[in-house]
Write a structure and sequence with these properties.
The complex is a heterodimer of chains A (about 725) and B (about 300). Chain A is of the alpha+beta class and about 725 residues long. Helix content of chain A is about 25%, strand content about 25%. In chain A, strand 10 (about 185-190) and strand 11 (about 195-200) form a beta hairpin. In chain A, helix 9 (about 345-360) crosses helix 10 (about 365-370), helix 9 packs parallel to helix 18 and helix 13 packs parallel to helix 14 (about 495-515). In chain B, helix 5 (about 90-100) runs antiparallel to helix 8 and helix 10 (about 240-255) runs antiparallel to helix 11. The relative contact order of chain B is 0.12. Classes of the chains: A alpha+beta (about 725), B alpha+beta (about 300). Bound molecules: flavin-adenine dinucleotide.
């Protein structure tokens, strides 16, 4: 019988290879259908009206004129009289009509009277927020080596005795998710059934969210999502717009498409909280941080929570540490999970401080990071190994100069920086069904989704590897809520979850097949294996039958087998046997930049990412995932930010023209190294989505600081902030 | 987008009379790369859109004794695709190369760029530096207006009801002269100028002394500017780095930029100085026939 655990490193035929995506062609030629591309006959289009005020109550709302507009079919209020609006751009009412033009006229005819209230949108200045009474304490804790000492006195002593002490200010602004495909859906109502073509990261979990509010039960709602144009953590829920679209389809009996506009998307559909930090730091002469005393703050919107304390400082755990967290409530839309929640901010506002230790002592940043690895726990040797690899790829030693002491080429100076990160990436719950047909056809079904990361291809590869087939012989069916349920794709949990359930389902199906084939080969099913498109006696290539022939033994109905991964059940607590998947990775990144000291422009020269992810299923898409993360990291390090206007409370750059994302010409050379020694391979599959997007902010900030000898304290490092740091700055 | 009527007349005179009859509720459409977006966002809601991009009068690209006649609807790709423009009116080609990307350049016209009258329009400072003149057709006499006098406020210009910009006239290039346009954007390409600078430099026969210069500035005032006094002050000065640095300093004093999400006034002043210096150096190198190091995005 076939073994469920992965083959030893080096013996797999497909796993770990370089494979093109099975849906690559469909995406390139445009035959891949996204929610927006679904256009059923007789479809209505819908769009929403946004509130222009950051804080207001609705005094009166009159939808009659809109309802009477030619071409308008339905108008649905999302707010009622007396409701409070708490951020600019919040959605107030939806119009569905025959054409986009009719909808635009309908929206223009909606009459709303607001009572405008005071607003607060500035998350950068803790004192101003305290004065405005919009802060709330978000925890404090202290860790002391000499536990019994008085904390104040102990910190004072540590700072007095240190080789260097300094105070630093660091920050990272709010960014939005900026999904290329905005949030929304196309819904079709058929009697008591409803199909929602929803742009979602959560195919299995969203039918119930839609059904309840529109008076159906989950079994009557099917969610369908073959392709999605970006989610990054913002598309787990059906959301008010997903429900309203379904409701409009039910009410009108016609298909309805309702997608957010770009500015509605940026103002409502997800952002990453900001993080600002003031810290006093003490270190010994080798750059070992002996004491860390920090206050940090930030906003996640109207509820006012900052970055979690757990990431302050990030990865490093200095022996003496005090941290105080404060949240700021702002009139901005609620944050949503953004790729590796908390980690990119934690890294950007604390590993910059670690780099400043090197700057203040005139040491090599590499040595300071190395020196502090003794505080990172069990993964220290892996970080050390990865740092060596990254340094080699960057040619760090040859390029290094102390902060601000490099040569100048005209007005341009260059610098190096690094950062390290960690993430979990263990599997989510997942079920799969594998079918082997009597004619040799193979199908695998999961209610999972491919966010563009290559999940579809990974599932196909696991089935093909298990059955000894080629990737092209497997038909992968995902993206439909009617399939066996699989978890939402977030937190790097998907690749682990789907490869567990898929491997288990395919192995179970194969074992059923081997049982049927055994008599033909006059062997015991236990002696058989599937390799190279054949079923054979283990290790004996002469006694075999082809896959097709083998399947001919199945009989009239196909073989069908299930596989499941259930958290804490599949591997109970304290389990220490073989595994298919694991949790927990390290990662090291280095950046090289050139800074024009006259214009403040930062150019990426080179970016190196070294990453462990356990066992690699598809090397090519794994690398692509890291390229994407590096580019996204360069984006938030140098370009993108949400800009709020203090006077009006408006989000002023909520369009693609004004919300700066890098172009390919801005990203420089990106070098990716997948770290997969046997010890890591043997841990099994671990998720990769989040980890590589964590370090770029700190690594790039540190490189700019190394070039200039001055810290640009807040990300993104725009040319203006660079010039301000040069002319003032610490 | 709202509902509107669309008309594509066959002659300039038909277009002018349609426009005049519409009593201010119509807009010409050239490449549409500004207009369609502005209608989409609801900034403009014209009842009638008059397509002028195929009018023959607006598509001329000819050289004669008066210089270059450039039809207002000629798209960017035709402009930088014409070797004589690249040679003789380099600043114009530089600007057309960086307006949007390839798709935008296939449609966007310099006439549309000017008539949209944004303070940050890329081709306008280049045209100011090149002493270009607008030829305006309308219900009355055809009239001429220098480019630097065309824009009157953000989004506003001298066009009267029923008038259409027909052509832009560029005087012949003098000997020993060169020009350049460069903008500052925070990223490599596809962005709205934080500051844009166009410069024309004509050298004495010695190749060392500035005979005349003209500097156009974008995004630093409500309308693109001709830096008249600064340009005049360069005549007779040595064409050296120190002259260019002082010109940059002087430019900082004459502009009135605003603080907005693209940058503070202070920051725009700093960048303007740096750009004026770099643009004058490149225009001078071109006047001398030296290869210039300029690459868009650097
Ligand atoms: C993605 C993108 C990138 C862009 N990048 C840049 C950039 O880098 N730099 C830049 O400067 N601009 C940029 N733009 C703006 C735009 O492309 C330019 O302003 C372009 O030159 C406009 O020309 P058009 O022919 O498309 O004008 P249209 O949109 O057709 O017209 C613009 C305005 O001028 C009026 N108009 C046009 N022609 C005439 C005429 N002959 N007589 C009277 N009125 C007329 C129209 O009614 C309209 O109000 C960009 C736009 C987009 C969408």
């Amino acid at each position: 019988m076939a073994e469920v655990f992965w083959p030893p490193q080096g013996s797999a035929s497909l796993l770990g290879g370089e494979h093109n995506r099975i849906d690559g062609l469909a995406k390139c030629i445009g035959s891949a259908k996204y929610a927006y591309d679904v256009v059923p006959d007789n479809m209505l289009v819908a769009s929403a009206l946004s509130c222009p005020h950051a804080h207001a109550t609705i005094r009166a709302i009159d939808l009659n004129a809109a309802r009477n507009m030619a071409g308008v079919v339905a108008v649905e209020p999302l707010k009622k009289e007396g409701d409070e609006i708490r951020w600019e751009g919040d959605l107030v009412a939806v119009v569905a009509g025959e054409t986009e033009a009719a909808v635009a006229e309908g929206l223009a005819a909606i009459k709303i009277e607001y009572e405008v209230l005071d607003h607060f949108v500035d998350d950068t200045d803790l004192d101003a927020a305290t004065e405005a009474n919009v802060t709330r304490p978000a925890g404090r804790n202290t860790q002391l080596q000499n536990r019994d000492e008085d904390a104040d006195q102990e910190f004072e002593r540590l700072f007095n005795e240190a080789a260097v002490t300094f105070e630093g200010h660091y920050g990272i602004n709010v960014i939005t998710h900026m999904c290329l495909e905005t949030h929304g859906s196309t819904c079709e109502s058929q009697g008591d059934k409803l199909v929602s073509h929803l742009s979602t990261q959560n195919v299995s979990g969203t039918p119930g969210q839609i059904a309840g509010p529109i008076g159906l039960t989950a079994q009557d709602v099917t969610v369908h999502c073959d392709y999605i144009g970006g989610g990054f953590g913002s598309k787990f829920a059906a959301d008010a717009w997903g429900v309203t679209c379904a409701q409009l389809a039910r009410n009108t009996g016609r298909p309805v498409k309702y997608m957010l506009t770009r500015s509605q998307e940026l103002k409502n559909a997800g952002n990453r909280p900001s993080g600002f930090l003031r810290a006093k730091i003490a270190a010994d002469k080798d750059g070992f941080v002996t004491a860390w005393d920090s206050a940090h703050w930030g906003t996640n919107g109207t509820s006012g929570a900052p970055v979690s304390q757990g990431v302050i400082p990030y990865v490093f755990n200095p022996p003496n540490r005090r941290r105080v967290a404060t949240g700021i409530r702002t009139n901005t839309s609620p944050a949503r999970a953004w790729r590796a929640p908390n980690h990119p901010q934690g890294c950007a506002i604390t590993q910059t401080a670690y780099d400043d230790v090197a700057r203040h002592l005139g040491l090599d940043s590499y040595d300071v990071f190395l020196r502090n690895l003794s505080t990172v726990g069990e993964r220290a040797p892996i970080y050390e190994d990865q740092m060596k690899l990254a340094a080699k790829l960057m040619d760090w030693k040859a390029k290094w100069h102390p902060h601000g002491k490099g040569g100048q080429d005209g007005s341009v100076v260059s610098g190096l920086g690094m950062a390290i990160h960690t993430w979990g990436g263990g599997p989510h719950a997942s079920r799969a069904t594998c079918k082997i047909h009597p004619d040799g056809g193979v199908e695998i079904f999961l209610g999972s989704q491919d966010l563009g990361t290559g999940t579809r291809t990974v599932i196909g590869l696991v089935v093909a590897e298990t059955l000894g087939l080629e990737l092209e012989q497997v038909s992968v069916q995902i993206g439909l809520s009617e399939y066996p349920s699989s978890g939402p794709s977030g937190g790097s949990t998907t690749v682990g979850g789907v490869s567990e359930s898929t491997r288990r389902a395919a192995t179970a199906a194969l074992n059923l097949l081997l049982t049927k084939v055994a008599p033909r080969l006059e062997a015991d099913a236990n002696q058989l294996e599937a390799v190279g498109g054949k079923i054979q006696i283990q290790g004996n290539q002469n006694r075999n039958i082809s896959w097709k022939e083998a399947c001919g033994q199945i009989g009239i109905s196909p073989i069908e087998a299930q596989g499941e991964y259930a958290p804490r059940v599949t591997y109970p607590r304290n389990y220490d046997g073989k595994r298919l998947t694991d949790n927990g990775v390290a990662g090291v990144q280095m950046a090289e930049v050139a800074v024009d000291t006259e214009t403040g422009v930062v150019k990426m020269k080179k970016f190196v990412a070294v990453q462990d992810i356990g066992l690699i299923i598809n090397r090519k898409t794994a690398r692509s995932q890291i390229y994407g993360a590096a580019i996204m990291g360069i984006a938030y390090a140098l370009f993108e930010e949400r800009i709020m206007d203090k006077a009006t409370g408006a989000f002023v750059n909520a369009e693609l023209a004004d919300y700066k994302l890098p172009r390919l010409g801005d990203t420089g050379e990106i070098v990716v190294e997948l770290y997969e020694p046997e010890s890591e391979y043997n841990r099994g599959v671990i998720g990769l989505g989040e980890p590589p997007v964590i370090s770029p902010g700190a690594a790039i900030s540190n490189a700019v600081c190394n070039a200039l000898g001055k810290r640009v304290s807040v990300l993104p490092i725009t040319p203006q902030r660079v010039l301000e740091a040069i002319s003032g700055g610490a | 987008m709202h509902s509107f009527e669309y008309s594509a007349p066959h002659s300039l005179s038909d277009a002018v009379s349609l426009l005049a009859q519409a009593e201010g509720n119509a807009r010409p459409l050239a490449g549409g790369t500004d207009l369609i977006d502005q209608m989409q966002t609801g900034r403009f809601r014209p009842a009638l859109v008059i397509d002028i991009k195929k009018l023959p009068e607006l598509n001329v690209l000819e050289f004669d004794g008066d210089g270059l006649h450039l039809g207002a609807a000629v798209p960017c790709y035709r402009i930088y695709g014409e070797p004589r423009i690249v040679q003789e009116y380099s600043a114009l080609a530089d600007a057309c190369h960086i307006i949007g990307g390839v798709q935008i350049q296939s449609r966007a016209s310099v006439g549309g760029n000017l008539c949209n009258s944004g303070p940050a329009a890329d081709s306008t400072p280049a045209m100011i530096a090149l002493s270009a003149i607008c030829v305006i057709a309308g219900p009355g006499e055809t009239r001429q207006v220098p480019v630097e006098e065309f824009c009157t406020a953000p989004g506003e210009n001298v066009l009267r009801r029923g008038e259409i910009l027909a052509e832009i006239l560029f005087p012949p290039r003098p000997a020993n002269s060169g020009s350049h346009y460069r903008r500052f954007i925070p990223r490599n390409e596809m962005d709205i100028a934080v500051v844009g600078v166009g410069a024309f430099v004509e050298l004495e026969d010695d190749g060392q002394t500035i005979k005349t210069a003209r500097i156009g500035l974008g995004a630093v005032a409500p309308t693109p500017l001709l830096a008249e006094d600064l340009s005049a002050s360069l005549s007779g000065k040595p064409a050296t780095d120190s002259t260019f640095v002082s010109a940059g300093e002087a430019a900082r004093q004459i502009i009135t930029p605003i603080t907005d999400m693209r940058g503070t006034a202070e920051y725009r002043k700093q960048i303007t100085g740096v750009l004026v210096q770099r643009v004058l150096a490149t225009a001078t190198a071109r006047a001398r026939g030296e290869p210039s190091e300029y690459k868009p995005g650097k």
